[in-house]
Amino acid sequence: MRKRILMALLCGALVCLPLAGCNTGNNSNTSDSAQSEASASTETKTTNNKNSNQEYTDEVFAMDTYMTLTAYGENAQEAVEAGIAEIQRLDDLLSTGKETSEVAQINQNGGGVLSEDTEYLVKRALDIYQSTNGAFDISIYPVMQLWGFTTGNFAVPGESDLAAKLALVDAGKITLSEENGQTSINLPEGMEIDLGGIAKGYTSGRVMEVMKSYGIESAVINLGGNAHVLGNKTDGSQWKVGIQDPNDTDGYLGGVNVTDKAIITSGGYERYFIDKDTGVKYHHIIDPKTGYSANNGLISVTIVSADSTLADGLSTSLFVLGTKDAISYCKEHCAADGFDAIMEDEDGKLYITDGVYDDFINMNNTKNIEKIVTK
Ligand code: ADP
Ligand code: MG
What we know:
The chain is of the alpha+beta class. The protein is globular, with a radius of gyration of 20 Å. The protein has eleven helices and 18 strands. A hairpin with a 2-residue loop joins strand 7 and strand 8. The chain has two domains: 213 residues, ApbE-like domains (T-fold, Roll); 95 residues, T-fold (Orthogonal Bundle). The strands form four sheets. Strands 1-2-3-7-8-11-14-15-16-18 form a ten-stranded mixed beta sheet. A three-stranded antiparallel beta sheet has the order 4-6-5. A three-stranded antiparallel beta sheet has the order 9-10-17, with helices on one face. Bound molecules: adenosine-5'-diphosphate and magnesium ion. The site of adenosine-5'-diphosphate has 22 residues, from helix 9. The site of magnesium ion has 6 residues, from helix 9.
């Protein structure tokens, strides 16, 4: 009961993540509460009167998840509709599971000419592969398939099967070539790529660009637990975004005050199965060093950055790197690359980098917090 009340209070105060955990399902016109709860609604569609504070919310199922978009301003409806069209365009291009997508075609043919979006994403992914010493590896797809994460037919693979698939994984062997102003990708025999660890971040950034082109200055989108906010709320105050508690997905480990940022979380609770024979839980973030679910001390990694592609790539990467290496990575890269991190380890300790430390909303009064100095 107490928890229900707490949830209600938090849902009133925060942009709730993920959608399912906080379905208030109501939409009032332009009130502050409508704004705060904008991304919490899973089933409603709102159209309000045309005025400069007009709010419009809609949702779409794409990239295997529910996505909610809310914009404020005169062209809110047009902006949200164009944002959804952009999501569908990118879903058709980037989803490995769609046979006709560009990425699926590349996998089938061992390479091909890259479109502008895919070229950008592959290059960003390869940069992150380099900077994380291979913790982020888009060639992980054959291993994802073997575990059944791509189909839902989950199974713990045998050692030799896993070793055979793991031998195909090394994004360092991907080559790109330029000819007549076009970039082509070439994959070694048997390699397949999967942009699932970075595509939603890129997508939210693209949606914000589309919304801005409609004159929108205030918006919030939630792509299956990945939040991205444009500007501030229409009352000028910052957005408050809740970060899901990895141990209790109805609750929050905390929140963060943000303006113009993506807030992207990776955790082992998002997609997993439990092996009936052993009771062991296996989740969808794979450590390319072992082929098994990453299990290096962190249970949740949130990256806060204006660069949503980076935020998505790094949330997955730092989760794989684990506590010690993720902290070292932050010390070396946060200030230079423009991101911050809020991470929880398996003992419930929080690690928060200095750039976002004062913006953290410690709603659970967590005492065990370490400030990571990066500047
Ligand atoms: P989600 O997409 O569930 O929000 P992530 O951004 O962490 O969470 O991405 C997880 C996805 O990234 C997996 O479903 C898979 O497609 C891909 N992936 C898994 N392990 C890795 C890895 N080590 N490097 C790059 N991509 C990965
Ligand atoms: Mg990611």
